[in-house]
Amino acid sequence: AQKITQTQPGMFVQEKEAVTLDCTYDTSDPSYGLFWYKQPSSGEMIFLIYQGSYDQQNATEGRYSLNFQKARKSANLVISASQLGDSAMYFCAMKDSGAGSYQLTFGKGTKLSVIP
Amino acid sequence: IAGITQAPTSQILAAGRRMTLRCTQDMRHNAMYWYRQDLGLGLRLIHYSNTAGTTGKGEVPDGYSVSRANTDDFPLTLASAVPSQTSVYFCASSPEGHYGYTFGSGTRLTVV
């Protein structure tokens, strides 16, 4: 069974500083995908970044990067140069690649607050 | 604009009433999903459908049913609503075997 753990219910970061949001996962499937989503106060789910289990390099998308440590089963999200608009809920999610299994399993989320 | 349409946006429902949440996508994605979001619990999968004509149970299926008569529509039905079904419901879709998930804007349901 899949499991995603986000141990930080809430985080604060000073504007323009970098912040790391933690995510650990558990799966027995050798092939899987890891995702991060942002949910602002307006409620929509915004895709940020994706990392495949066989990807050799850490994924990056603009100010977002994923620190993927496969042996530790961790997939932390790093946001560089935080902006006030980064204040939101952040969810880590995983999809394994088993036959007929396409759904995402989500962590409980981390609420990030950016301080001016 | 391609994407997922959910209706209604919000609803207050009396306990015991039947309610169907609608979800329509225009991307021809094979797979569709229903999640509920509760404070402190993240998003939990209710039901899913990997392709038209098939459905499966997720983590929290009790009290909910779904159907998938065609590719585009994936309604979620609460046969007899209870207050514990108060939540925000998200519909999502993805191409089969692909990581490109799309989420709807959500339905906020309050059961009183």
Instruction: Estimate the global geometry of chain A from the Cα principal axes.
Output: globular
Rg of chain B, please?
13 Å
Number of separate strands of chain A: 12
Q: What amount of the residues of chain B lies in strands?
A: over 45%
Series of secondary-structure elements of chain B, N-terminal to C-terminal: EEEEEEEEEEE
Looking at the chains present, what oligomeric state does this protein adopt? heterodimer
Number of strands of chain B: 11
Shape of chain B: globular
Report the mean per-residue pLDDT of chain B as an integer.
94
Number of helices of chain A: 0
End-to-end Cα distance of chain A: 41 Å
* DSSP summary: helix tally of chain B: 0
Return the structural class of chain A.
Answer: mainly beta
What does this protein structure show overall?
The complex is a heterodimer of chains A (116) and B (112). With 116 residues, chain A is mainly β. Chain A is built from no helices and 12 strands. Chain A has strands spanning 3-5, 10-14, 19-21, 24-26, 32-39, 46-52, 60-61, 64-69, 74-79, 88-96, 105-106, 110-115. Chain A is globular, with a radius of gyration of 14 Å. The relative contact order of chain A is 0.34. Chain B is an all-beta fold and 112 residues long. Chain B contains no helices and 11 strands. Chain B has strands at 4-7, 10-13, 19-25, 31-38, 42-49, 56-57, 64-66, 76-78, 87-94, 102-103, 107-111. In chain B, the strands form 2 sheets. In chain B, strands 2, 4, 5, 6, 9, 10 and 11 form a 7-stranded mixed β-sheet that branches. In chain B, strands 1-3-8-7 form a 4-stranded antiparallel β-sheet, with no helix packed on it. Chain B is globular and about 35 Å long. The A-B interface holds A 6, 9, 33, 35, 43-45, 47, 50, 52, 91, 93, 95, 97, 100, 102-109 and B 31, 33, 35, 40-45, 48, 50, 58, 88, 90, 92, 94, 96-97, 99, 101, 103, 105-106.
